[in-house]
Design a protein that fits this description.
about 130 residues; 9 strands; alpha+beta; about 15% helix; signal; Lipocalin; Lipocalin-like domain-containing protein
Length: about 130
């Protein structure tokens, strides 16, 4: 009986542990930019990039490679990035899951296989991607 309880306890502990690697792997790979949305004092707008082949390649080594042309986010080239929890504002703000590209902070959301990197919190664009 003790063996069974011990095995059940071990199984419960293993299944309840979160794996940070799963979170960091969410962003790694090629993402096609499909749209940029803008929100601000002057109104809302968007740019449709779905017919273009603008790719953001988030590499496991912390390098982002942007290719395919001009867009509302970054020009073609390589950038350092961080993906994880950090303070969006000052150190008194709670930590949130975000992407930091060359020290610019972007909110992160992955819903229905679409990734949104957002700077609408500072009147910047929200970039919408689909995994390629």
């Amino acid at each position: 009986m003790k063996r069974i309880l011990t095995l059940l306890l071990i199984g419960f502990l293993i299944s309840s542990c979160s794996n940070d690697d799963d979170i960091s792997n969410q962003i790694i790979g090629n993402w096609k930019l499909t749209e940029a949305k803008f929100y601000g004092i002057e109104g809302e707008g968007s740019i449709d990039y779905s017919d273009e082949n603008i790719i953001y390649n988030f590499k496991a080594n912390g390098i982002l490679v942007v290719s395919g042309g001009d867009n509302a986010g970054y020009t073609n080239g390589e950038y350092e990035y961080f993906f994880g929890e950090d303070h969006l504002g000052g150190n008194t703000d709670p930590k949130v899951l975000l992407v930091k590209i060359n020290n610019s902070k972007w909110t992160y959301d992955l819903t229905n296989k679409k990734m949104t990197l957002g700077q609408s919190y500072v009147d910047g664009p929200n970039l919408i991607f689909e995994r390629k």
